[in-house]
Design brief:
The complex is a heterodimer of chains A (244) and B (245). Chain A is of the alpha/beta class. Helix content of chain A is 38%, strand content 26%. Chain A has helices at 42-49, 74-80, 96-106, 112-125, 141-153, 171-186, 198-204, 222-227, 232-242, and strands at residues 2-13, 16-27, 31-35, 57-62, 65-66, 81-84, 159-163, 191-194, 207-212, 215-221. In chain A, a hairpin with a 2-residue loop joins strand 9 (207-212) and strand 10. By secondary structure, chain B is mainly alpha-helical. Chain B has a single domain, classed as MetI-like fold. In chain B, 75% of the residues lie in helices and 0% in strands. Chain B has helices at 21-53, 59-73, 77-91, 94-102, 107-133, 137-145, 150-180, 192-203, 206-234, 240-243. In chain B, helix 1 packs antiparallel against helix 8 (192-203) and helix 8 packs antiparallel against helix 9 (206-234). The model of chain B has no long low-confidence stretch (mean pLDDT 93). Classes of the chains: A alpha/beta (244), B mainly alpha (245). Bound molecules: adenosine-5'-diphosphate and magnesium ion (MG). The site of adenosine-5'-diphosphate (ADP) has 11 residues of chain A, from strand 2 and helix 1.
Amino acid sequence: MAMIEIKSISKWFGQFQALKECTTQVDKGEVVVVCGPSGSGKSTLIKCVNALEPIQQGEIIVDGIRVNDPKTDLPKLRSLVGMVFQHFELFPHMTVLDNVSLGQVKVLGRKPDEAAENSKKLLHRVGLSHHAHKHPGQLSGGQQQRVAIARALAMNPICMLFDEPTSALDPEMINEVLDVMVELAQEGMTMMVVTHEMGFAKKVAHRVIFMDAGAIVEDDKKEEFFGSPRSERAQQFLSKILHH
Amino acid sequence: MNYHWNWGIFFEQIKGGDETYLDWLITGFGWTVSVSLSAWVIALLLGFLVGTIRTAPSPWLVRLGTAYVELFRNVPLLVQMFLWFFVVPELLPRDLALWVKQDMPAKEFITATVCLGLFTSARIAEQVRAGIGSLPRGQSMAGLAMGFTLAQTYRYVILPMAFRIVIPPLTSEFMNIFKNSSVAFAIGVLELTFQARQMQEDSEQGIETYLAVTVLYFACAFIANRVMAFIEKRTQVPGYITSAK
Ligand SMILES: Nc1ncnc2c1ncn2[C@@H]1O[C@H](COP(=O)(O)OP(=O)(O)O)[C@@H](O)[C@H]1O
Ligand SMILES: [Mg+2]
């Protein structure tokens, strides 16, 4: 069953076409990794899924909701789709606990103490119970990103989008974040993950999408992608990131 | 210099009355503080509103905000004072104009407060716009991605940080508003500068008068500065400076 359907979408920034008739689909429980060179449109593609970026052509459907229908309640839709950013984007003026609780209270209407209980459970799950009272600026990058994942999970999302969640991290912190993501994947979360961590892709991805210049060039089962990517660009790209 | 010093002048009675000169200065100081604080409330509310509007996704709102700021920034404060006092009432419908000119209570005070408040709000709006602009674009995306409406994103994510960022320029504005309030004397508000001129003419002790006034203005600006420093300290975000990119 399709959770995210992306049907022939195109997007322009002014004259510049950032996405060219992209079509793909993420099924419920599926983990799809999106890779490709910088500027190829990966971030733009996943930001279209929760309408952070509008599209000019095509259609996106998330869990049966037509994202680009002007009648769609976008805040409602976005609350169903968790998102994790490259630069964490925690709210610096709030404690870690409040970061995780805020959306539950203000969007889902949970009671503050109920939300705080839930937040504590999630912080425990990402291994940060002892940091609940701190502010984001007092945590390492890896810890901040784990808080960001907990914050997204707190909304009980039906699927999760990740935009290069480990590429702003020092190498020694990458694994603590990937471990949390692997666990999520194994629990059956539907995930669309922009990343160049091919180890993660090999471990938990079902499919790999390769983008170049705004177009989806490859969209294969993991085994096929790593076995024999068809396009020359994808092969070049893979040999570059696998050998450094 | 054969100036005749008389520091006792403040306790002498004014010519033909039973108040002392000190009473005059205290009244003046009271009006100065009233005009300044009332104008400050207007300036903060409108400044944050207009500054926020100038970062909105709608180009029309942005243009409206920009026009507002340019209007109040590009005309001298003293001229604005006269415009509000002499010109604006003429532009009102006839009955209202008549009421404003003849019956409006505390007309000078209200005019000066509104004028100073709007003038300062334009400057604050500019600072707020710049403060919001200096936040990473990902912050508002994170708010929206969580399911906040645009208004909630501003309320819970953008404005709390923008406020902290603009505290240093806001401190100058808060100090300025006390100093700028002296312009209100031009339309007859009985504030400190007005009373000082009157005392100087009446008592002919200009040096004592203006030294006292200097100390009072200095005290206002100084207290304003300390109040803002206190707020800055209270709202400081642990770890933020060191983690700022
Ligand atoms: N807000 C924007 N305005 C104009 N151009 C943009 C904007 N966002 C992205 N782009 C352009 O769109 C292209 C794709 O960007 P992006 O999706 O961020 O690439 P990736 O995430 O694959 O590195 C790039 O050429 C980038 O310069
Ligand atoms: Mg990107």
